[in-house]
Structures are given as structure tokens and as C-alpha cells.
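## retry 2 of 3
previous attempt timed out at serialization; input unchanged, resubmitting
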Amino acid sequence: MQRAIYLDYAATTPVDPQVAETMMGFLGTDGIFGNPASRTHRFGWEAEKAVENARQELAGLINAEPDEVIWASGATESDNLAIKGVANAYADRGRHIVTSTIEHKAVLDSCRYLEGQGYDVTYLKPSIDGVISPDQVSAALRSDTILVSLMHVNNELGTVTDIQAIAEITRERKIPFHVDAAQSAARLTLDMQSIQADLLSLSGHKMYGPKGIGALYVRRNPRTRLEAQIHGGGHERGMRSGTLPTHQIVGMGEAARLVREQFESDLSRICLLSKRLMGRLSLIEQLSVNGKRRHCVPGIINVTIASVESESLIMMLKGNIAISTGSACTSASVKPSHVLMALGVDEEAAHSSLRLSLGRFTTVEEIDYAAEQITGAVDELRSISPTWIEHRNRIEA
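## retry succeeded, writing output
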């Protein structure tokens, strides 16, 4: 039987074997299992050293100072900490926030929560290409704006926001700028010495590390103020309390090291595989791409296949090819993707859309097999689709 093929790397990545092996050294009585906050014995000292080494590795990936990295349980928590933390800390300066309609739910739901607390949020709409422009951000800023929060790489489309240009605008106005970089850390170079963003969210499981760990970069100079959202011990410079999960932190640190080491080879392979997959899929009649490829990172592809309901297509593949209809965080919802709807895609087309995402362990053979199976499933579904049959009859008439 053909083994299952994983093409859902934007939802999560498998843990790299080197990461898993490293993590095993921090579990059990033979490993470094101590509490990093224990300062009276070597078990704690060794754990603290491992945590700080991992902090250095992650800081190295984004060219930041280690003490600018704050550990969190994932990008969702770091998004919450950045948005709510800034909103609370700068409430005396204003209550206006700028974000977009195509953000991750962790950002959108945090902003909606703040709206209930009396904050005013401007939701920028993307171009038909799926891009938020610096000019849009500049036009939305007000005298009482205290935060701009935008993702770097969109998790459903793969489109890239020009965060460097936006950061220059917000820096000039002295407005904190938060970037959700969960999808970009393993796909694009992040240099916080040249990118003037103030806050940056990162996720371990989007970069071949473990789930349940992430980080928030908090710029030290000029200092960005944050009000803690979790209290109890004053860990992480008072910004995020809680016993640090040493094994997960070490895993994320090792994952960051491997991203740096393998960045060029990973990018080159994924770029070639993406082109190969698009070449195969483009042979499907009436297939359109959501988010123009010239604005997208390689490895995340979102397509609409006319007259084919995406859920039916996924069911026909019987779980043997892992693809999705959008963000994993909203997959329980039967509503169409909020990202596609924001682009102006109609509801019917949104229900006919698929996201395919590739990564470090994707192979040519998997790409070819997946394209073959998807094409076959499309043909079978269209053979019983009244709208497709009507379309074919019109063409042949």
C-alpha cells in the first residue's frame, strides 16, 4: 500500500530526527531534567545553561540579542502577549490598533477581545494578490495608534508582507510594530538588525521543532514596553511566568540551528519541488491560484479547482495525502476561509480551494504521486458534478 504523503507543512512540520535525539537528553533521570529556575544545585544549573544555549541559537537565527528572546508556549501565546501586552502598556497613549483581515486567528481574536475592552481596531483589506502594502499601513495610522500587527508570510496563501518597509514607517512614528513570523522563520531570512520591527512571534513546530514551544522577540533598544499576561514567578524578565520546559526549548534551539545550517539547501529543494507541483497541477482545467506566485514564498500553494468541493476531494484521497482547506487552527469550522473571502473569492470558490505545503522531507516521488492522485480525484468528482457537466456541454455545443 502506498504510504501516506504529507503535504501540510504549513499546519505543522515533523520534528527533525536530530532535534528529537537532542531532546531525549533532557528527559528522565539520566538526562538534564532539572528546573532551570533552581539556583541551588547542578541539576538546575545544567538546565539553565541548556535553556540559555537554545536562546542563543534562536537569537542567532534572527540576528538578535539573546536577552531579546522570551520563551512562550507557541506563536499563539506570543501573539497574545505582544498584542495585549502592548495594548495594556501603552493605553495611556491611545487605543487604536492596525492589523489586517487575513491575519491568523491568534491575532484576529486578540484584537476582537481588545475591541470589547474599548480599543478601536482598523482591519486592512489585502489586494486581490493577497498583499498588504506599506502605503495602506501609513494611511491607517492615527495620532492615537499604539500598535501595528501584521504577519510576515500568510499561513494560507504564502504571500509575503514587506515588513521592512512597514517597520520604517512605524519606527518614524514611534509606534510599536508586531510581526507574526511563524511561517517565515524557516522560509525567509530574518535579520532584526536591519528589520526595525519591535516584536516578532516564532513557533517551534513550524520550523521542524516540537509543538508547545515558541518565542517572542522583544526589541531592547529602543525598548518596547509589555504588560505581562501570565503571572506567577516573574520568569523571562517578568514578561512570561511559568516553569520553562527545558526539553522543548532545547528542541526549538536545535531546530533553529538546523534551519541556519540547512537554509540554502532546504530553500533550493522546496523551490524546485513547488515549481514541479505547480506544473503538474496547472494541467487541471479551470484551476486558479490564490495569492499571486510572484508575491509568495515557495512551499505554500493555494488553489481553487472549479466545480470540485475541496472537502469531497480530501475525502476521496482517504487521508493518504495530507492537504488542507486552510489554516489548521480553523479546520473544525465549516465556514469558508476568512483569508480567501478577504481576497474577494466568492463562497463557492472558497469551498473549492486547497492548500498544499511542502517542506524539508518532501520528495520528488511524493510530489508526482500526489499530483497524479489529486488529478484523478478531480476527474472523478467532476464526472458527477452537475455544474461541470453543464460547463462541458456548453463548450461542446
